[in-house]
Write a structure and sequence with these properties.
By secondary structure, the chain is mostly helical. 98% of the residues lie in helices and 0% in strands. The protein is built from 1 helix and no strands. The chain is rod-shaped and about 175 Å long.
Length: 128
């Protein structure tokens, strides 16, 4: 077996420089790929941090809008209650106005009847 290895030794001497050249080129390529991946990773981290900041800003804006919407809801409820109160008052005033108008009409009718009776009485007194 040793003699066979010795026969292959000259071939190894030619293959070693080729292997060295391949591995040295491969190492440089690997380093370039590693540097490119590191740069890509850094860009990705930067982009993610910017997206995280934007997301945080959007969350704050949504929270503020939620609070504003809640306040608007409370104000709308207050306005609805005020309108209902005003509607009740207006209905009460309309009932009073209707009652007052009926009393006024009755008074005018009674006054007309009283004036008519007075005229009849005065005419009968004059004719006597």
């Amino acid at each position: 077996m040793w003699p066979m290895l010795l026969d292959l030794l000259p071939h190894f001497t030619r293959l070693v420089p080729l292997a060295d050249k391949y591995f040295s080129g491969r190492g440089a390529e690997d380093k370039a790929h590693a540097a490119a991946l590191a740069a890509l990773g850094e860009q990705l981290r930067t982009g993610l941090s910017a997206a995280d900041e934007t997301n945080a800003g959007l969350q704050q804006a949504l929270k503020a809008q939620g609070e504003q919407i809640a306040e608007v809801g409370v104000e709308a409820t207050r306005a609805r209650m005020a309108v209902e109160s005003v509607e009740q008052r207006v209905a009460k005033l309309e009932r009073r106005a209707t009652a007052t108008l009926m009393v006024a009409e009755a008074g005018v009718i009674l006054l007309v009847v009283a004036v008519a009776l007075l005229i009849v009485v005065l005419v009968k007194l004059k004719t006597r």
